[in-house]
Design goal:
36% of the residues lie in helices and 26% in strands. By secondary structure, the protein is of the alpha/beta class. The protein is globular and about 50 Å long. The termini are far apart.
Length: 195
């Protein structure tokens, strides 16, 4: 299943070329993070995002940065190979990792292009409570735990846990947008900064 989301940019220039970016997810908040960020990164284009149901090939609830990075790369590669019109593909993989005896959730983002270049970034992190870690230890995914504790359904497709724990100040798309921008760094910044 493929979802195409296109948002017109605030411009009167209807003759802008289209830049198609494949997203290895059908999650609306992830697709929105890519669309909004890429609209800012590529202002001379009309940005079109195509969401693809891409497998991560990692565990349903990744518990390390390495596993998240692998999942994001796998999603990006699948999306690019299944979207011939895309110049770039973006994979996003959320997960939890232990740091100094605490646990933090973040989303890892991988951007690839047709020349084989790769960029990585990460979203903001938030601390995951021991209570939630207890649910995860029983085999639940974070999205399931958040839905159960909040009494809401499919929180991950909207504000996500990010929005709930910040009382709506920082939603999932907003949090992921920074990581998307950082992952595009090798493609949009001066090459003097890169190998």
């Amino acid at each position: 299943m493929t979802v195409i989301i296109e948002e017109p940019q605030a411009s009167n220039d209807v003759n802008k070329p289209t830049l198609t970016i494949a997203v290895g997810s059908l999650n609306p908040s992830k697709i929105r993070a890519v669309l909004v960020t890429c609209t800012q990164l590529f202002p001379t284009y009309t940005v079109q995002t195509i969401g693809i149901n891409a497998p991560s090939l990692v565990s349903p609830q990744p518990l390390s940065a390495a596993e998240c990075m692998t999942g994001a790369l796998n999603r990006a590669q699948y999306a690019l190979s299944n979207t011939p019109s895309a110049k770039f593909a973006v994979g996003l993989e959320g997960g939890i990792e232990p740091i100094n005896g605490r646990h933090f959730e973040s989303g890892w983002i991988c951007v690839i292009d047709r020349e084989g270049r790769i960029g990585y970034g990460t979203s903001a992190r938030f601390e995951v409570s021991e209570k939630i870690m207890g649910y995860l230890a029983k085999g639940m995914e974070l999205a399931e735990v958040i839905d159960e504790l909040s009494g809401m359904k499919d929180v991950r497709s909207g504000q996500g846990a990010h929005g709930l724990i910040t009382n709506g100040v920082v939603g999932r798309a907003d949090s992921y947008a920074h990581g998307v921008a950082f992952a595009f760094g090798p493609f949009v910044s001066k090459q003097v900064y890169w190998d």
